[in-house]
Amino acid sequence: MCYTALMAIGSTLRRRWLPEKSFPSYAYLPGRQPHPVRDPAGHSYNSEAMLSTAEISLDSDTFLWGLDLFNHGYYWEAHEAWEGLWQVADRNAPLRTLFKGLILLSAAGVKIREGKQAAAMRHAGRAGALLHRLMNTADHSFERALGMSPAALAEHAEAAARIPAALQATALGQPQPVFEFILGPSSGGRPISLQERVRRRRQE
Known about the structure:
Elements: H1 3-9, H2 61-71, H3 75-88, H4 94-114, H5 117-132, H6 141-146, H7 150-162, H8 194-203
Helix pairs in contact: 2-3, 3-4, 4-5, 5-7
């Protein structure tokens, strides 16, 4: 099945990593819907939460929520989820670089959906440059968490910067994936439930 057909079907074929969590009521595009956190009519108004350093991991709910949002076309919302992690990560840690790369890739998704190709190319190019820095990471935790190596994701980011995405007509606020790839843990099997993750963390 071609990518265009998948896009026409929508994001229902894409896997969820936190299936118990409901998506926002709309995928925000600047100037087209209420601002999610600043406007009282926004889908996440008054719901901002501070993150602790204990949540700065690739198996945290916040990171996995960012994956779900990104894969299903909620790019502004994915940007916000990962920005919270980036803000509290160690300043010179590779993990902070990864979060920044994902944030920029999410920003590119927003710009693609807005039809702002130059801005999308700029964000995607910067994402690729950051992700290339992680090519020589000693362990494979990033690759396992993303389902691909940072180098492969960098190539996807750079391809997005070169080739404009073909957008489908959608209703206002409807999410729309614009990237061919899907991010997520490469361990296989079903996603671990929230209850199971809590139980495992208590045992650590």
